[in-house]
Specification:
Layout (H helix, E strand, L loop, with lengths): L2 H18 L15 H4 L10 E4 L5 H8 L5 E4 L3 H10 L2
Length: 90
């Protein structure tokens, strides 16, 4: 990942999570998309391990856990976004 992209996300992560955020009650595929509960794209997740690339503040990880996923691992290039994920996932 380009350093400028990581630096950019680190610079805006706190404001993004505070002002825009992202729901964690349901899994969303995009900011303007309906939730997974309406789309039904995923097969049942019961017990399946999931890797979330670009997990941001961890909202998708929380939603996947609530949908019955087994182990959920989130990866993000932004240290600040991961800090938000750590708080949310406690």
């Amino acid at each position: 990942m380009a350093t400028d992209n990581r630096d950019g996300w680190n610079a805006i992560a706190d404001a993004y999570q505070r002002e825009r955020g992202w729901p964690h009650e349901s899994l969303y595929w995009g900011i303007r998309c309906p939730p997974e509960t309406e789309l039904g794209v995923l097969d049942p997740l019961a017990g399946k391990d999931v890797l979330v690339l670009g997990c941001g503040g961890g909202q998708d990880c929380v939603a996947l856990c609530s949908m019955g996923a087994g182990r959920v691992v989130g990866i993000d290039a932004s240290d600040r976004q991961l800090a938000h994920a750590q708080v949310l996932c406690r």
